[in-house]
Structures are given as C-alpha cells and as structure tokens.
Amino acid sequence: MARATLPPAAADPPLPARVPVVTRLKPLGAALGWVTAFLAVGTIVTLLLEQVIPHTDSPWWLARAGAIQVAGFAIATWTIGRWLNRRSWAEMGWRDGGVALRGFASGALWGGAMAVLAVLLAVALSGARVYVHAPGPVFPVGGPILVGVLFAALSEELVFRGYPLRRTADALGQGRAIILSAVAFGAAHLMNPEAQVLGAVNVALAGVWLALAFFSPGGMALAWGVHVGWNATLGELFNAPVSGYDFAIPGAHYSPGRYEWVDGGLFGPEGGLVGTIAIGVGLVIFWRRARLAATS
Fold it and tell me: What DSSP designation does 42 have?
C-alpha cells in the first residue's frame, strides 16, 4: 500500500517589522530639543529686559512683568519657531485679523461666564460673599491691572501653548501633547502664593481647556481670550484672588466662605471644588465643539 505523502507545510507568515525604540524616540527628542531652545531664548531675553526696564511699585507692576515676558517669548517664538524651525504663524496658532478678533471676543465671553459660575457656586456651596463698596477711583488701579491681565495671560499662552504645544504635538500627537503641557502648566502654579494641590490640578484642567481652544479654528486668540476672560472676571469684577494673587481693586471684594476645599480659600475659586466644576464645564463645552467641528 502506497504511503500518502503530506503536502509541504505552508511557510509561516512574516512577523511584522518592529520599529526600533530609538526610531520612535527620535521625533520626541527633536521636539524636546527645540522646545528647550525656545524656553532658553525666552528666559534669557526676559531676564535681560528685567535688568533694563526699571521696576515699579505702582499699579502698573503686573503690566510691566507681563509685557517683559511677552516680549521675551515673542522673540523666542520668532527666532526658534518661525526662523530656525520654519513653522508658519498659522501652525503656531496665529490667525488673520478678523478670525483672531472674533476668537478673542468669544474666548473672553466663555472665560468670563465660567468665572461667574465658579463664584456663584462658591456663594451657594460654601457661603462665600461678594461685598460691593461705595464706588471709588476704580480706574487708577483697575485700568493698569486690566492691562497687566492682558499681558500676563498672553505671556502664559506663549510659554505653554503656541510654539511649544504645536512642536510637541508634531512628535506625540495632540492628545499626549495636551496632557504634557497641562501638567507643566499646573506644576508651574505650585509656586504661586497660597498654592495647594487641588489648585494645581484645576490649573492643569484649565491647561487642557486652553489647549483645546488653541487647536480650534480660533487658535491662540481664542485661548488668550478664555484666559483673559477668566482672570479679569475673577480679579476685576469680583476682586477675588486669581491663582493666589489679590489685586485689591476698589468697588467690590470677594470673601471666601466656610470650606476652603470648596471655594479655594485665599488661592481663589480656581483652588477649590467650584473651580473644578466651572473649568470642567468649559473644558467639556470646548471638547464637544472640537468633536462637532471634526465630524462636520
């Protein structure tokens, strides 16, 4: 009886090629190098300007500090981002005039609305109070502080969003880059007066919110507007602490209530549960808008 012969075994399918770890890390290393150079240039220029421009104890102190940092990191954006790394202004979040103006106005409204929500929650949940005093000379203090809020918010957007966020997203993708920048944003605020862990967590959540604004059609102007709207409404309208800073503007005064973990205490509403809720609402709204824009 003839012995049956088995058909030759099929060759095993080739294993998928594995991308070497070094190859996967190379784009990240390049991005970190560029961002480090950006931060170094911005910091050096800022420190040099600090030595040149006279200090002041007047209400213009915040405007001076913010303007100096804006100048330092605007130079870094142009030098590292635009000239050396060849990123376009649009890639770094800067839109044309009409889009930028509408983005800033929309952002300021959203930021202000969420700040009002935080204060109302602080009043309802913790017994915080807003006292309205007899009108005094508000503009001599409030005007310079408002200019300072504009500059300070823009400087932080240049440092934490703008070129660094775009360059990191090129290497890691938007999701990972947003998380990384948000953690850095929150950690930086741990050095503020009256800082605590919940405040840093809330600031990190705000970093996610601002990054979603940055990656939207409104770009940097929208993120800047949200930042200004939040800070100006808390600091100027309610005279509440903003990330631990009290601007002492005449006309109104915010007083924390019974529970620091709810209303944020001396760090301000963004240091408590009310900040978590208000910032979370803004974050979810912008996330849903981003998803709708992506599917339309």
Answer: H
Q: Are 268 and 131 in contact (CB under 8 A)?
A: no
Q: Which residues of the chain have pLDDT under 50?
A: 1-7, 9-12, 15
Helix or strand or coil: residue 152?
helix
Among residues 77, 37, 45, which one has the least CA distance to residue 220? 77
Nearest-CA neighbor of 130 among 247, 252, 235, 230? 252
d(CA 177, CA 157): 15
Sketch the domain layout of the chain as residue ranges.
22-295
What's the N-to-C CA distance of the chain in angstroms? 72
In this structure, is the dihedral angle defined by the CA atoms of residues 274, 182, 113 and 155, taken in order, positive or negative? Answer: positive
pTM above 0.70, yes or no: yes
Q: What pLDDT, on the 0 to 100 scale, is given for residue 80? A: 98
| Residue 253 bridge partners (DSSP) | 131
Nearest to 170 by CA among 79, 85, 103: 85
Residues near 153 by beta carbon (within 8 Å), at least 6 away in sequence: 66, 224, 227, 228, 231
| Residues 137-186 pLDDT 10s | 667 778 899 999 999 999 999 999 999 999 999 999 999 999 999 999 99
Contact (Cβ atoms closer than 8 angstroms) between residue 152 and residue 231: yes
Looking at residue 249, its pLDDT comes to: 81
Say which amino acid occupies 172: L
Task: Return the pLDDT at 1.
Answer: 43
Compute the distance between CA of residue 5 and CA of residue 24 in angstroms, rounded to an integer: 48
